[in-house]
Structure formats: structure tokens, C-alpha cells
Amino acid sequence: MNNILIATDFSEPSINAATYAVQLAKHTGAKVTFIYVYPMPVVATGMPVVLTSYDELDNDSMATLKKTADEISAKCNYTPATDCLVSPGFLLESLTDVVREKNFDLIVMGITGASALSERLIGSSTTVVIRHLRCSTLVIPLSARFQPIHTIVFATDFEKIEHSSAIAQIKNLCTSFQSKLKIVNVIAPHQLLNYDKTVSGMLLDKIFDTIPHSIHLPEGDVVDGINKVIDEQNADLLIMIPRKHALFADMLSERHTKKMAFHTHIPLLTIHEE
Fold it and tell me: pTM score, two decimals?
């Protein structure tokens, strides 16, 4: 986590996420870049309209972004190496271009708390980035505040377990924060682990042999099972490896995305495999 990109829209959830990110940078010494992607003005009328120029929009957005970055740094009593970027357009496309150009290794975004409206809209921004942008993404719930990461929950489907770059990042994170690791695989009620998953569990046990860890196999609903372990272990961070199938696909299905994103009270870190 040496180069952190903080996506903000100046809302309360994004300011909270940015504050968390700056405090994380304070712990790790990472460089921080703030980015604000503003919508392009669209005129849907036949009447003459005077539009604000892109230069004006850029200048106003940059001034607000720099002011926000300064206020957050002052609040955290820490001024990291900081850059500010503004871009017109759509969030996913803009983040994709910036990540590719500047080699960020972590994006930090906020997510709002549960409400009827927000649950209908979930997936339009933060979860779209998680699904489609191949960069590790840290999602900060509105209620989350930065604290030392003593306990990490790693939710896995026990599929295709190997010594991947994502697993290496999890090990490095545990070492950096001296964290305990809780490996979670939720199983269906009354279901026994098959041979392949048993082997995967043994392989994970070996992979993390230098990290204090334990394996947990709660039964029932995926989201409820993960949240149960989070609460029982008083966890500070949840990690998942996005895939197009199995656990993560199920977690990011419409019903589970809403449930997990809005009712998990600790940050969610998604780490993509290279």
C-alpha cells in the first residue's frame, strides 16, 4: 500500500473514507492522491442555456478538492505526500485511466449506510468499481473509524487456492500490522466439505503457517456467516478476492451486495489476482 488513490464526491461517506485513508497512510507512509470525477454538463432542453466552461468546472473542483484534502490532513494531524486530480466524465472510466497511468496499488472509497433509497442504488458506483477495476479496493462504511488492524477476516470459497499475488498481499498486510488472520468459508447447513475443499483448507493452513491464524466454517447464509465471525472475533478488516464465480459472485449478487455492503460495519478490502 505505497500509492493510495482516494475517490471522493465530497459526501459524508466519502469524507469519512478519505479520513480513514489518510490515517492508514500515516501508519504505512504511503503517498496519497485525491480524485474527484465530476459529471459532464448535459443540456436536455431546446431553450438557449449558458453552460459553465470546463476550465471553470476544473478550477472550482480543484479548489474544493484541495481544501478538502487540507482539512482532512489537519484533522488527522498528518500531511502525507499528496496530489489532487479532477476529471470530467464517468467514475469507472476515469479511475481505470488514472490507475493504469499512475500505477496505484489501492483505491479507497466510501459507502453509505442502509436506507431504502441507497440499497436500490447500490452497485452504481463503489460496487461497480469492485467488480470491474482490477485494482485493490478498500471500501469504508460510514460508521468505520481507523484503528490498528489487529484481526483480519479472509472470506474464501476454498476454490483455486494457490500461492498467488493476492495471497502474498494478505500475508504482507498481516505482517505489517502484526494481525491475526481468521480464514472463513461459509458452508450450507448439514453440508460436509468435499475432498477438494478439505485439501484447500490444508493448503491455506500451510500457506499462512508463519501468520497467527485459524479456520472457521460457519453454516448458513453467506453474509450472515461472515458477519458472525467478524463479530465473534472483533475483526477490524474483511478481505475478499473477487472472482467471477462462487463466493464473491454470490456476495456481489443483488441481494448479497446490498446486505453485505450496508450491514458490515468494518472496512472491506478486495484484492485482485494478477
Answer: 0.85
> What is the pLDDT averaged over residues 202-218?
92
**pLDDT band, very low/low/confident/very high, at 261 (cuts 50, 70, 90):** low
In CATH, the number for domain 151-270 is 3.40.50.620
Instruction: Tell me which H or E stretch contains 216.
Output: strand 213-216
Q: Residue 115: its pLDDT value, please?
A: 43
Distance between CA atoms of 59 and 230, rounded to whole angstroms?
43
- Residues 241 and 136: their CA atoms lie apart, in Å, by 9
Which DSSP string corresponds to 118-154? HHHHTTSSHHHHHHH--S-EEEEETT-------EEEE
Written as one string, the DSSP assignment of 228-270 is HHHHHHT-SEEEE---SSHHHHHHTSHHHHHHHHHH--S-EEE
- What lies within 8 Å, CB to CB, of 69 at 6+ separation is 18, 34, 82, 84
More confident site: 164 or 67: 67
- For the chain, give every residue range classified as CATH 3.40.50.620: 3-141, 151-270
CATH 3.40.50.620 assigned to domain 3-141? The reply is yes
